[in-house]
Amino acid sequence: MAYADQIKSVKDYIKLPFVYNHWYMAGMSEDFSQTPIAKTLLNRSIVFYRTQDGTPVAMQNRCLHRSFPLSEGYMEGDNLVCRYHGIRYTPEGEIASIPCQKSLSQKKLHRYPLKEVGQFVFIWMGDETEGMEDAFPDLSHLADTNFRTFGDFMLLEGNYLLMLENLNDLSHFAYLHKDSFVFSEEFLDIPFTVEKRNGGIFCNRIDRDPARVVKTLPPHYHELAEGKPIERWDGGIAVTPGIFTGLAPSYIGAEDDPDRMVLNQIINHYVTPETESTSHYWWSMSIDYEQNNDMFCEMFKGILTTGFDEDKWAVAHMQKLLDKDHIEFDEMVIAGDQAGLLYRKVMLDWVIAEHGEAPKSA
User: Fold this and answer.
1) What angle do CA 224, 225, 230 make, to 5 degrees?
2) Helix crossing, 160-167 with 294-324: angle to 10°?
3) Start-end of H helices in 139-253
4) How far is 313 from 185, CA to CA, in rounded Å?
5) Do residues 205 and 103 make contact, with C-beta atoms less than 8 angstroms apart?
6) pLDDT tens track of the chain, all 362 residues?
7) What DSSP element (H or E) covers 321?
């Protein structure tokens, strides 16, 4: 089956091959230390550690001698020692020494480029190219001291494309999140924009109803908003196969008001495949207001965690049914699917760029 045919139904869509020539989240900065650990990303076992100066390192988690996992080894200075036969590897993946012999093999471990931004570490899984740096999305707010950023991690029992389709679909807010995010069916009546932008899909709803929008603001902003036009955005853009940037700013005051207030909220979702049916999922919220209000931030984090747990629950149920129920059916498309279907086409472009039009065996 050609990849273009696979995107027509979800059961085939989630069988698309992984795309490696992109940046993915590897973990939180605090996950990595001078103690080696293993993570499986895109079906590849990778060992992570930090050198003595704190630089994060990622290499294939497999000794070149007998395939023993290097994550079970230990550090000698900056060198990683295989616990099976004592072969030592440098942070560049080169062999530093081999017990019982003086000659060294020229073989090297595959080393994965990493980029640390704020509290987060990202990994390039594919071929190292000149365009690799340019492919890193703008996540400068993660290191911007004008923002306070908090977030969390959860393991999804489902294919990563199920979660990415969820993120591109705002129509589920009024149902899946009706108790956590407190959206009503009125949310679906708000006009929405869906367009291809910067290589990804941008979707957005702008709510200008003062009675609804004011409920989303912290209490002490209610008085500031009284008698002024206010609006709230709910949207975002899928910038890579594994990174979705949600945008939810609130505006107090008219567009031409020099004193117009903006409360920025940037919600990043990082979905990195573990296997075909499990995914690593991190999220972060960056706000440029109430940065020093610990009570507000903890309350906000709790609300978001509850909502994203609902997404996790939905993804697990869909994956379970797709795995076990093999009755053929025609997938129905509804108006709210517009962004998700456009995202499938963008994903198709990424797959074809890396793998061609169809599987090699086809």
Assistant:
1) 150
2) 130
3) 160-167, 173-176, 210-213, 222-225
4) 21
5) no
6) 899 999 999 999 999 999 999 999 999 999 999 999 999 999 999 999 999 999 999 999 999 999 999 999 999 999 999 999 999 999 999 999 999 898 999 999 999 999 999 999 999 999 888 789 999 999 999 999 999 999 999 999 999 999 999 998 888 888 999 888 877 788 888 888 898 887 788 999 999 999 889 988 988 899 989 999 999 999 999 889 999 999 999 999 999 999 999 999 999 999 999 999 999 999 999 999 999 999 999 999 999 999 999 999 999 999 999 999 988 888 898 888 888 999 999 999 999 999 999 887 64
7) helix 294-324
Q: Taking the alpha carbons of 42, 45, 46, 47 in that order, is the dihedral positive or negative?
A: positive
Torsion over CA: 10, 11, 12, 15 (sign): positive
Residue with tokens 């890193």: 136
Whether 117 and 142 have beta carbons less than 8 Å apart is answered as yes
Chain CA centroid to CA 80, Å: 29
Domains of the chain in start order, with CATH, are 32-131 (2.102.10.10), 137-355 (3.90.380.10)
Separation of alpha carbons 127 and 132, rounded Å? 8
Stated as kind and residue range, the H or E segment containing 320 is: helix 294-324
* Both structure tokens of 132: 């690799």
Name the residue with tokens 């992984």. Answer: 18
SS in 3 state form for 221-253? HHHHHCCCCEEEEEEEEEEECCEEEEECCEEEC
At 334, which amino acid appears? Answer: I
